[in-house]
Amino acid sequence: MDTAVRVLAAAATSATTRSRPGAPREERRFTMSDEEEDYDFEYSEEEQEETDVGLENSYYSAKALKAEDPKAAVEAFREVMAQEEEQGIWGFKALKQMMKLLFKMSAFQEFTDCYTQLLGYTKGAVSQNVGEKGVNSVLDYVSSSNDWGLLKGFYEQTLDTLREHKNNRLWFKCNLKLGHLMYDVGEMGRLQRIIKELLKACKNEGNGDDDDTNAVKRGTQLLEIFSLQILMHSRQRDQKKLREVYERARKITSAVPHPRVVATILECGGKMHMQEREWDQACTAFFQSFKNYDEAGDPERLQVLKYLVMASILHKSEIDPFDSQEAKPYKQDPEIVAMTNLVEAFRNKQIKDFERILKTHRASLMGDPFIKLYIDDILRTMRTQKVSIMSNNTHFQVLLKAIAPYTRVKLPYLAGELNDIPVTDVEDLLVSCILDGKVDGKIDQVNQVVLCGKVCPAAGGPASSEAGAAAAVGSGSGSRAQTRTAVALERWAESLRSLNTNIAAKVDYR
User: Fold this and answer.
1) Among 330, 345, 285, which residue's Cα sits nearest to residue 311?
2) The CATH classification of domain 394-497, taken from the options 3.30.230.80, 1.20.1250.20, 3.40.50.410, 1.10.10.10
3) Ranges of Basic and acidic residues compositional bias (predicted)?
4) Could you read off the pLDDT of 330-350 as tens digits, one per residue?
């Protein structure tokens, strides 16, 4: 009991905020404001007739004293509980109001005693829904504390009481909350034990229940567990187990989960596909995740929308992610506008604009550890696009004609022949020609020379300018063996880049 009191004392200093500063985005915290309305209970006409009018009047009379005389209001609420012959709804409501007043008065021991009584009501004095809302509101309230050790003790007290009362439904929800708390503080060992316990409880509850209602209930609980389990494997960088759980979650059809649960699963699945360079599947997962976050009204939708844009660029998709009805309203959002401009420049093949936007917003983009992993891939994709554009214009044909008569040509000379384009662009064009088999040669970047063995006959004939003759240095010819080696090395380098990305993905990017 002393543990819970210390938790409440720590929580009182930060109860005015809705969440802890700097808390992980997966954490969802709410507080019980003093202006919070009572639960809206709907009664049938018969139930209204049976309601004790005296208790109801006493309750509202006590509530009227809250602002003027909190201590008198507490005593009045105690009277309401004393007047109730058996535990019922008016005593539960009075107890909840007392707890808010006691917390404001820093009477933490009395608050804890009231909480113990509140747990007793969940045994059957009130409906499951009402009991869950009451307990959850208290747990969310004390969750404003930053003392994780004390907070865990408070949760464990709640779980022990619920286990004694055999309130399996509320026990499951509170244990799930504790699991998210362990994820937030990074206690993966304890989190694994909680997940195992939750899966066992879900399995036991499902034994012998074949009707549709129980199947939906079990499916919903499994998705909630899998969501937490996927978060854990994602943080641990265990791709194999992450995929296993993700595939199991995707196979569940009989469930009615909260959109945020589905969004979390799909977001982690999208990141998994990204790490395995499955860009198309990543786009699909991120888009579905965004829609579910949007349905839940979760601000995380903007972050996932950025991931969707990034995946669509890497996939070289011609479809604008912002063409969808769900994403269109966020196109000009300040957090998204950089990604919006980036994808427009990519789709319109505006190379210079793309590079300018990336350079201007590089700091903000690199500020996201996940996006940072794929900046190099985005640049490489754009360079490929750049080469593709140049390959379809006259530069490509001029280049082949310029190098056809020679075995050794300086890159600056070729840049001049191509209307003084940058030497780096000449290199990109040459790499494309060599890999496509249009030029048999290799590039000496140190000396800025291309060594040519053979140009595709369709490329064109000899160069006629004297400058071209001056550019030919030496008479050696490149061999096909050397070219094959260069191509193999290029492919090897690409494999190393891919390996580097996968290794970087193993590093925690929190």
Assistant:
1) 285
2) 1.10.10.10
3) 23-32
4) 988 888 888 888 888 877 777
